[in-house]
Each structure stands twice: as C-alpha cells, then as structure tokens.
Amino acid sequence: MKPKPCPQSAYIHIPFCTHKCEFCDFAAFAGLIELEDEYCQILAGEIESRLSQRQEALSLKTIFYGGGTPGLIKPSNIAMIHKQLLKFAPLQTGLKPGELEIALETTPHAITAQKAQEWLEIGINRLSIGIESLSDAELSAIGRDHSVAEAVAGVAIAHQAGFESISIDFMYGLPTQTLASWQATLDAAIELTERYPSIQHISAYGLEIAKNSPLLSRFPRDSASYPSEDHCVEMYEALVRTLESHNYQQYEVSNFAKPGQQSQHNLTYWRNAPYFAFGVGAHRYVDGVRSANLRSLKKYMRSPLTDEVSEIIDAKTCIKEGIMLGLRLVQGIDLKQFEQDYEVDLLATQGSEIDYLCEQKLLELSDGKLKITRQGIPISNSIIGRLI
What we know:
nine-stranded mixed beta sheet
C-alpha cells in the first residue's frame, strides 16, 4: 500500500461558545471565554512543538478553524494562531481558483462588520455559518441561542463585508419539526441565496443525539416530537430535490455546492487523506496514525501534546476507511484509483456483494466507478457495512 503523503490540510479547534447547544457532543465550552488568550497561546505552542519536529518541507492547501465558535473569539487571536501555523507550514502557491481554502466556522450572531473585515485581512476566504433552522420554534427546541432574524442578519453582514464564499448549515429530524416546516426552511434558504449570491455551499445533516445530551431531558428518544424515520427520509429527498433544482450540486451525502465551490477541506477527510489538527479534542491523521488531543479543556491546557486516543491504521483498516469515506461522495469510488492507492481490486474481493447491492439498486457500477444510488443513500450506513 502506498505510504500516506505529508498532510496539506490543517484543522484548528476553538472550543469557546456563548451557549452549549443541547445536542452538541463536540469539545465546546460555554462561559469560559476568559480563558481565550491563554488557550490560544497554548494552541500556538502546540503548533510549534508538533510542526517544528517535522523533517520535510511543509505547505498547506486548506485550513479550517472549527469549534466551538471560532467566530466568537477576538480576530487578533485567530491572526496570531494563523501566523504561527504559516511560520511552519506556509500556504501553497500556484493553485487554481478555489483550491486554496481558509475557512472559519461561526454562529450567525457572532458576526460583526468589524470582525468580518478583520477575518478577510487575515486571509479567511470562506465562512461556514451554522444556522440549523429558519424556524424560531425549532431553534428554541434544540437549544440554539440565535433567532432567524439574527441568522439572516449574520449572512447579510458577511456578504456585505466582501466574503465571496459562504456556506450555511442546516439540520433535519429535529424535535417539533414537520415535513412542512422543513420545506419552509429550505424555501427560505433558497430565498436567502438569491438575496446573497455569495452563499455558494449548503450542508444539511440529520440530527444525531449524543448519549448524555441535555436535549433528551426535554425530548426523550422515543418522544413523538421527533419526525418518524420515514419522514426523515422524505425530508432528505426534499433537501436534494430543492437544492438541485436551484443549481446546488450534491457532491457528498450531506453537502451541496455551486459548481467549483465544494469544501476542499472536507474533501480531504472524505478522500481519506492525512491532515494536521491542533487544539482541545482535535483529531488528526498523520503518518498513518489517527490520534486525538485530550477532550478536557483543563487537561489539554496543562498537557497539549498528550493524546487521549491514538491508533495505528493498518492496511486492513485503511481499506475499510477508504470504502466508507469514498462511498459518501456522490461520484463514488474510482475502482482503478482505489486499486492503485490500496492495492486491492474491490471487484475481485467484494464482487458477489457488489453484484447483489447493484441488483437491489442500492449500488451502481458504471464507467469504472462504484457509487451508492439515490435510493440507497438513506440506508448508506448499512450498505457500507456490508462491504467492510
């Protein structure tokens, strides 16, 4: 199997939030913003410690500031971290338009005109704005602390500041959500994109509830407030139908983009490529090892180079991950490229299973590419499970 190349992407985790959403299972912390300056200095130190030890010349094509709410902290701290990262891993030059991606994640109500201008000056060229729903009742149900009006205002500020690439995120399968209210959110989202054409990308994820989520105290898993499984499938179908009819091309199970506006950073993950990651709870894939920093903020700040988990990805696991991630992409797996990368002929090793799934119209094999059909996407996890 080919050795993994040196990472060309980096993820930076900023854990601070104004409010911890009731469904959230990320390393995110509300009410601790007073630790911002100290945390950012420690994170910058982690970057230096990890990257200064590398023997090869480093360069980056994508950087993603995720959280938490990176948009919440002072832009000067983002600038400091960014400068530190580029000191050891400068940006690649000579790339085609859209290939160099420096993205920042934010809630809409954290956006101000001043921040947006400073983000642009740092070099941020893509904003990912977590809207989740364009219904105030649904936002309240999942414990979000912004309103629809604030969501629209945040997008407007970013657009007017000069951002040319904005991604907005939504969720479906929410408590109190209906097919009609989800369609209303989709229609309102399309109206928003027509008003602000810099919205080049839309993500929409089915709600996943963490085991100890506070949301379960108000809406237990068996609550009738959640849409049924069949309704969630219909919501997904409405999502695809609505977005594709307005020139947002689906390129991954949950992601849609105008032509040429796919998330380059997320494609790093889906292509099973390596990437650096820094900050509390951050997961990385470097030199054939998947590892993650400590999830406890206090523990991380005391020991930023200590891994909470670390796993050497052997050849068998790497092949499984290649199948799992590749089939999330609408274009599917290029079987010839897969064989070159993993030294495995999937038709030889999985031929009978692939034939069966194709007969059931859950997989499609054409032009040397294997992909999940539209019919199969709602049950993609079980399809992938049969192959790995």
